[in-house]
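pinging the channel bc i need a second pair of eyes. not urgent but kinda urgent?? the chain im working w is below, pasted from the shared doc
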Amino acid sequence: MAQGRPHPPAPPPRSPRRTRAAATFSATALLLAATLYGGSALADARTDARRHFKAGMALIEKKQLVEGIKELELAYQIAPHPNVAFNIAVAQAELGNLELAIGAYGTYLDSKPPDQTEVEGTIQKLREKLAAKRAAEAKPSDTPEPAVDKPGDKPGDKPGDKPGDKPGDKPGDKPADKPGDKPVVKPGDKPVVKPGDLSVRGKERTDDIYQETVVTASRAAQSPLDSPSSTTIITKQDIRLSGMTRIPELLRRVAGMDVMQITGGDENVSMRGFNSRLANKLLVLVNGRSVYNDILGSTFWETLPIDVDQVERIEIVRGPGSALYGADAFSGVVNIITIAPGEGSKAGARVGYGDHNQAYGSGWVSGREGDFAYRASAGYTRYPRWTREVAPGRIDIKVADFDQNLGAENLRFDLRTEQRINKDVAVTLGGGYSRIALDVYGTGPFNDYRLNGDTLDVSTGFRSKSFNARVYYTRLAVTSGVGYNYIGQSLYEPSNPTQNSFDAEAEYTGEFKLPAVLKHEVNVGVGYRLKNITWEYLEPNIPNQHNGSIYVQDAISYKKAVKLVASGRLDYVPYLARVVPSGRGSLIVKPAERQAVRASASTAFRSPTFLESFLALPIQLPVPGAELISASKREDDPNFKLQPEQITSFEASYLNQQSDLFEFEVSAYYNRVSNLVALAVNRNNTLSTKGAGLPGYDENTGRYNVGFGGWANQCDTYHVGGGELGARVYPVEGLDIFANYALNLSNQDRPDGCKVPQDKRTSAHKANVGVQVRTKLGLNGELTFHYQSAQTWNEQVASLAGINYQPYTLPAYTLVNARIGYRFFQDKMEASATVFNALADVFGDAPQMHPFGNRVGRRFMGFFTYSL
């Protein structure tokens, strides 16, 4: 009989899972569920796998090994994980099924784990035991040669590598035996490997491997129950089943998140209020690396060199994060964590096409050769505008030379590598490039603004058990200009903004006890950031900025029930020429193992951007020959300097994950916000200012200066209160439901003389509900419903009198998105279709998310995916 290596059952999961249900939309949701749910649905790729894993480990602890192995096999079938194969191997060895133990250990080794040498030693010991057992059982007259792998054979070749083996044989089956055969050990047989002989069989790994972990809230992997801030995770299964290719649209499902689409390529995202054009209150990271735009302070989501198919999960910290991440982590942090080199499918591609010439393409390869791992990807995206800004044939308008129907285009490449030194030490190297075209809405008169150019990043890092370091370089180089203007008005000749930044970070982590009953987990980090910016709209010869930071965090635990987390950071801001402190304190109490009550207080700030710090641009007014000098430095007030925006936040929350069938969280917060930066009310040019030598006629533009603009800190203080309530329910395997609701209420303190209008640009009510389904038939899908209540935007616009506020009311709107897919050919292929904003124009006009933005219409798209 050929002796291959039996593996745990590992058919690829039919499809992942995730959440969403419909209260007000229940009829449609139930229709989708009835269509897709085939009775014996495959379980969720994480939640139900975790359920079987926990059950299996509990049975093994009670020495009910056969039943425990069956549960572990189910967990592995749903969501393969190396540690499950390892635990199956340990249990099979204790049970006496040595062939199967060797095979399961071989499956574990397929993942190229850090302890590969140790496990190979365990396999060799099991082979020796197996050879001795067979020799003892053989008859003297009929002694076959022991079927032990020869020197040089790979430890445990896969079934199918040799004639007679069948892929997918279960660990309870002998190689090449019929499926369903009993374990080789009969009742009453003495185990060949004693239960306590850990030197031969190894020790089970009891870590809850299917439990979601987060790293962003405290810079270390931990359960959301231990997180010092409210944290939401969008999983890989959420991403796939949603069908979304835009990261901001994935974020819309998060409670408290503000997502606004203005054009086909311009999405602005904020947390718990204060969304805006060029949104600047949310810090966005990719694998912990900042993708912050230092010129404008915004995030250009469609310029990233990665796409959703390369994302493992997205972590969202709901609340200020400056205590760990410094300036610009004002209202929250989004960390996009990509699939690690060597992980995920070995290779694959997804292509999609939709109406209005939407296009999406993504391809990747990933692998590991010994201690070296890599992942390379390439992709292309094209999004049209929702509506065209200028109709063809207008003779009163001058149009710039670019595609007036294009919202965003991105051609991208990315490569990440990892060289493992030993099980605790690794070195990483990688980089990404994207060629972009982007239509965005800026501030003031720059409502239709085009960027064409390149982005680049290169990074290297060192990771060990207690010390981490990273260095990375990023570059943005584009040609930019206004899309159109009326005849006689300036198009603002194309300019060439460039941004070069260099970052270096180092961090130490350690643990100690002082006194003996208190465990301290300490993080200490330092950082440096060099910024180099050039742009014709800014002052000439802007100096390089050298930013420095240091932070300390101590997480103090008393047993497993109480944890106090104290974090503090100092940032040196060159523009301010001073150090700005940030802090956070959190108390976490666990009344039960899977419940947590959290109370926290924190401060954060946003430093002025280069645009706000060094603006120097004449703005042409509607009156011919007149202009407003918009500049950060004030010739009429030489001592003026912008101050950083400030927020102080208090939050209380309760998280319950006690049940395997549901989890829920409720939180309440209060934020005090001051010094918001906005375009300044114009200061008129008078005879006295001209007498003081300030300019009147601009020889370069041929226009007369009638006033001065720029930026200013608003004079009001905001008091924002609200809360979020969210739940996820898993009633049966393969059916997931979620719902969340966010409340946001604010008022302003306006001292005498402060004429800032009442701010109502954040919806008071937001709700998300949805459902996801996966079936054994290969059908899978998602239906989501998003609601946002009315808003009133006070936008600063240029008029005959200069820059002034004007209110715009936007009605409430809903979005309904859906996806349906079918997996086939052993789950290696999938065909799917998505619809975004399915009800556009059905119950009224398509929604408008910003008063100057496009009306967001309906979009269909079809996809085909192939992966190995």
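so The chain has two domains: 43-201, 227-607+644-676+714-867. and Residues 1-44, 147-192 have pLDDT under 50 and may be disordered. — does that match what u expected or am i reading it wrong
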